[in-house]
Amino acid sequence: MGSILDITYEDMADVTPSDTVAVPGGMAAGFGSDSGGTMTVITARGTTVQRTTVAGRIYNVAIQQIKSTGTSATGTFVVYARPFGPRGGDRA
């Protein structure tokens, strides 16, 4: 039996935190950073959340944005899995 931790992602992208620009494709299946530190994100449901993250760990929460305000982590990135971006459900 598989666990929730058995996830294979289709793609990933580096993201520059921004208070105005969404992640590439508008939605990602998860996020993380190379350095760890605080990250402020906007979830798929539009909730703004700030958390202290661990370097290299992927947080399996669908997000639409990594905000620059409240983010101290560097090397921020997002990961993609169906049905999330960058092209959503139309991926082959």
In percent, how much strand structure appears in the residues? 25-35%
Structural class: mainly beta
What's the pLDDT, averaged over the residues?
87
Main sheet summary? 3 strands, antiparallel
Order of helices and strands, N to C? EEEEEE
Helix content: under 10%
Major sheet: arrangement of strands: 1-6-2
Total strand segments: 6
Q: What is the approximate shape?
A: globular
Low-confidence stretches: 88-92
CA-to-CA gap between the ends?
A: 26 Å
Indicate how many domains the architecture comprises.
1
What's the gyration radius in Å? Answer: 12 Å
Number of helices: 0
What report would you give on this structure?
- By secondary structure, the protein is mostly beta strands.
- The chain has one domain (11-85).
- 0% of the residues lie in helices and 34% in strands.
- The protein has no helices and six strands.
- Strands 1-6-2 form a three-stranded antiparallel β-sheet, with no helix packed on it.
- A hairpin with a 4-residue loop joins strand 3 and strand 4.
- The model is unreliable at 88-92 (pLDDT under 50).
